[in-house]
Amino acid sequence: MRNVLAFIDAEFTGEHKFTTLVSLGIVGEGDEKIYLSFNDYDRNQVTPWLEENVLAHIDERESVSQEEGFRILADWFESYRKKQSVSLVSFGKTHDLILLFELWHKAYPDREYFHNLYCLPDYLNHAAHFDLTTIFALAGLDPDLDRGNFIEHSVSGQRHEALFDALVVRECFMRCMGKGVFPKQKLI
Question: What's an example of a GO molecular-function annotation for this chain (predicted)?
Fold first, then answer.
């Protein structure tokens, strides 16, 4: 049985190791989706760019704490995965996955440090996660290509809104797979 795919995007306070999660969007292979915005990100890290491009489009009344978001997300994954492992596909190689995984630290409040090997559920605790930039490079495409143009703007929405960006990741991935660049059974 192959892993089920989930396409993710996170918005966060900066490209550094102390960044904090602002919002998270995940879409499945079909119509499944979840969007969470968080109210406990580090407000001291907010930049004018983040304010204008991300926070201005978030309804704070709908935002939740990371602890509450973790419970909602864990329930969503349990429902979505149907007892299969989940392979995550993100745009980049690091922050999206790390920030998503660190939500599972909420399940272990007594642990000082989060550890992927011991804190993630089995359905996520594996190496079969992928990033779009590497997939583009392996497909002979420029990893910095304009993703909207690549998918011929087949998805509408607001850039830097995590759910929209997760949909773009899914469409880019599916377009690469549809081109026959990778045999599907080998990649997932």
Answer: nucleic acid binding
- Global confidence as pTM: 0.93
| Residue 121 tokens, joined | 């559920």
Q: Domain count for the chain, please give it.
A: 1
Q: Residue 141 is part of a domain; what is its CATH number?
A: 3.30.420.10
Q: Cα-Cα-Cα-Cα dihedral of 148, 30, 128, 143, to 10°?
A: -10
Residues 69 and 35: their CA atoms lie apart, in Å, by 10
Report yes or no: 179 and 36 within 8 Å, Cβ to Cβ. Answer: no
In the chain the first and final C-alpha atoms are separated, in Å, by: 10
| Chain position carrying tokens 């490079």 | 137
Residue found by looking up tokens 């830097």 in the block: 160
Domain that holds residue 170: 4-187
